[in-house]
Amino acid sequence: MSATDAGPGFQLRRSIPAGRYRLLAVVGFVLCLLVWGLISASNIVDPVFLPTPIAVARTMVEIFSYQTIWSDLWVSFVRVTVGFLLSAAIALPVGILIGSFKPIEAIVQPVTEFVRYVPVPALIPILMVTLGIGEESKWALIFIGTYFQLVLMVADEVRRVPYELLQVAQTLGATQGEIIRRVLWRSAMPGIFDALRLCNGWAWTYLIVAELVAANEGLGFRILKFSRFLQTPKIWVYLILLGAIGLLLDLMFRSLNRWLFKWAETGK
Fold first, then answer.
1. Residue 157, class by beta-carbon neighbours within 10 Å (0-12 exposed, 13-18 middle, 19+ buried)?
2. Which CATH architecture has domain 58-267?
């Protein structure tokens, strides 16, 4: 069947109306909820490990009446934000240099590729010894978990800038510094912003790992504490909360991307 024979909304890489997109997104969540309800009601999985959606909803109402969850939210948000901003602050200039100059790529990229395959949880003992058990070690874990991915993504976005643009700038008399600032950086900005969106999501996934380091509050710490006593409804509440935070941040990044870079395909 050709692309023109496909039904409405099912043509390859064709857009659909925003209202229909949102409706289908809601349908996706409803289907997941129905499957969850059916599995938990049929006792295929022990209710101790998979409580019903109603039990989780009741637990959610109970948890949100406590002050603890709000302090956990704030502490975890600060940890992720600090670690991620430190990562971005260093990865952006380094990634631009790697994508701009082959000698720098030869020096830095192989080492970066090597380190990014080292499991982050394996670094916990080293970070505890070097940075202690305070907030610094938690920021460092989130930094390590995102920096090496982000720097390579930034470099790839810089490499995607058409070389013809650089040649035009050189013909017009631009210096290398001006080409980096006014051509490479500005052309790669939409893709770099999208890379920041993805890495911010990864930063939140490393939160649980970061809060293994002698934490006494935070979303990840609370999940680990609940798991020791098999308080699975509370675990599911915190997991749903983490997913909701991630989805909200992702939507914010996408909206800001569309607003800042209306001319770019990545901003659509």
1. buried
2. Orthogonal Bundle (1.10)
